Amino acid sequence: MVPGVMIALGALAVVELVVMLSVVAGGFADLGWIPGLGLGGQLWLLSLGVPLDVSVAPLEGAGPVAQTVTLAPLGLSLLTASMAFLAGARMARRALSGAGLAGVVLTTAVVHAVVAALVAAATTSGASAASPWSALAFGGLIVLASTAAGALVAGGTPAALVGARAVDMARQAGQDMRWAGSYLWAVLRAAWVAIVAAVAVGALVLAFALTLGWQQVIAIQQQLGSDAAGDTVFAILHVALLPNFLVWALSWASGAGFYLGEGSLVSLAGTNAETIPLLPVLGALPPQDAPTLLSAAPVLVVLCGLLAGWWFVREGENHLGEWIAIRIPWRVVSAPVVVVVSGLAIGAATAVFTAVLAALASGSLGLGRLSLVGPQTWETALTVGLEVAIGAAVGVAVAPWVEQGRSVPGAVPSSAPSTARPEATASPVPSARPVSPAVPDRADRADRTEAEESLAGAGQLGEGLEKAHGGSTAAGAVKTKVSRGAKERDREAKRREDIARKQQAQSLQADRKAQKRYAAAEKRRARRKAARDR
Questions:
Q1: What is the pTM for the complete model shown?
Q2: Nearest to residue 483, comparing CAs of 414, 417, 410, 415?
Q3: For residue 313, which phi and psi values (nearest 5 degrees)?
């Protein structure tokens, strides 16, 4: 329960401190201490994805109209996410080896949501309010995902979340199921490479736009006529919305564009908006008659897919492609099918990641036409996914030719016959290390068993490929492919062995600490008994 409270209070304190400093400096007109505290709490709730109901008068003298603000400042969301990630990593490092932290992670998220509901109830005012029930429903989602990610990364294996027993049960599954899981995990990681590169493209586009439109940005800032305190408030607002701007720039580069209100589309064709909010960064928007060179921006997103496809081939886990190659004996037919299927799989996973980013970076400002601000979720996801799929297909097709010239340790000599069994070229399984009899090394035995099964499976797969191709496969191609797979398996076995050794050391250290505490408690009880006897 303590991490959930500390994460909430830490992020809330940072937001409140910034808002109150702005109030003291005069950055907000006619805003007192109490309303300032309420504004900081509601901004924090908005960063968690909690909708904010506001009452705004559209015209002077007119009655207020109820609106809903849903545009979350992702900069503040990243603050909460980073604190939750560090908390999850600390939990995994301090937990016993193989201990399941799923219940602890869930408890942390629930406690954080309860604190968010209390803040929503305390900051309710006549002008704006957040529903405590909405805060209870949405206030712990970011913490849940970030804490689980931190525990998984620091733990090194899924056992950090689900426990060693669940992992052992999964390892007892058949080889086909394990290959399917490895393939899906490799596709997800390739999609993660693509989405990280795509966000970097958004940062590059945003920096380029600010460089070209810097004079217009300065003009809008001067038009606002604010003093130093007001300029500080605008700077903080830009920092809080910077991740939103990166996703908007990515959507623009893909060709889908983003909206600054209903009917106001900013895309590669230009800015189709009658009025633009007086936010200085929006001065960098491309003009209506944008240069033709900007229409080549989607090529950058395609290059992100090419990078993901190349990484996917280097990972050596394309088991679906191997299955297709076995079922279709004609290389002329099977090779294009493998390329297309791999590209579509990576593109589909990237589209899911993009949909999450677009949904988080868009929303409503609750002011008239500004009920739609940011990219359209599924339009952006489909566009980016398609472009990444094209690039990934090209990367999967080209990567084997690029990697063919690389020297791989443990490769078969060129004089070896083409009928050599693939398992003969693989590197041996790392030798088992001596362990203490008092602590059974169950994880190490499971890792060695898994490595041996993988090598045996690789041999059967190589025989199937050779039979499917009618023995016409060249010795050089078999040598390169099998050697790369053996190297990847050896690397994975070594990584798991290091993780098991680390977990064993942590378990032994925890046992020694427990024995010391028990011995100290026994000494205290003996001293108390001796004092009573006297």
A1: 0.70
A2: 410
A3: -70, -40
Contact by Cβ (8 Å): 96, 164 = no
φ, ψ of residue 53 in degrees (nearest 5): -90, 125
For residue 22, the Cα-to-chain-centroid distance in whole angstroms is 33
In angstroms, rounded to a whole number, what is the distance separating the alpha carbons of residues 198 and 210?
18
Query: How many whole angstroms separate alpha carbon 476 and alpha carbon 472?
Result: 12
HSE value, Cβ hemisphere, 13 Å, CA-based, for 398:
14
The closest of 186, 352, 373 to 266, measured between CA atoms, is 373
Distance CA 71, CA 362 (A): 6
Please, is 296 exposed, middle or buried when counting C-beta atoms within 10 Å of its C-beta (0-12, 13-18, 19+)?
A: exposed
Residue 380 CA to residue 359 CA, distance in Å, equals: 10
The Cα angle at residue 32 between residues 31 and 38, in degrees rounded to 5: 90
> What are the C-alpha distances in Å from 278 to residues 77, 181, 288, 370, 381?
24, 50, 18, 13, 29
Letter string b/e over residues 481-499, b meaning 16 or more CB atoms within 10 A of that residue's CB: bbbbbbbebbebbeebbeb
Beta bridge partners of 271: 266
Q: For the chain (length 534 residues), average pLDDT per consecutive 10?
A: 91 87 68 77 89 72 72 90 91 74 88 93 83 89 90 75 69 70 87 94 90 84 72 82 92 89 80 73 76 79 93 82 77 83 93 94 80 88 94 89 56 38 38 38 46 49 47 40 60 77 80 80 80 77
Q: What dihedral angle (degrees, nearest 10) is formed by the CA atoms of 148, 154, 155, 157?
A: 80
Q: What is the pLDDT of residue 405?
A: 56
Reduce the secondary structure of 452-510 to three states and give it as a string: HHHHHHHHHHHHHHHHHCCCCCCHHHHHHHHHHHHHHHHHHHHHHHHHHHHHHHHHHHH
Those residues whose C-beta lies under 8 Å from the C-beta of residue 55, and which sit 6 or more positions away, are 64, 65, 66, 67, 126, 127, 128
Q: What length does the chain have?
A: 534
Q: Whole-angstrom Cα distance, residue 6 to residue 88? A: 13
Q: Cα 205 to chain center, whole Å?
A: 21
pLDDT score for 411: 38
CB within 8 A of 85, min separation 6: which ones?
146, 147, 149, 150, 153
Quote the pLDDT of residue 406: 54
Q: Six-digit token pair at 67?
A: 């609106």
Are the C-beta atoms of residues 8 and 120 closer than 8 Å to each other?
no
Q: Return the closest-CA partner of residue 342 out of 511, 472, 183.
A: 183
Choose among 256, 156, 260, 162: nearest CA to 501.
156
DSSP string across 157-205: STHHHH-HHHHHHHHTS-HHHHHHHHHHHHHHHHHHHHHHHHHHHHHHH
Question: What is the model's pLDDT at position 440?
Answer: 40
- The closest alpha carbon to 112, from 135, 85, 88, belongs to 135
CA 365 to CA 57: how far, in whole Å?
14
Q: Which residues pair with 56 in a beta bridge?
A: 65
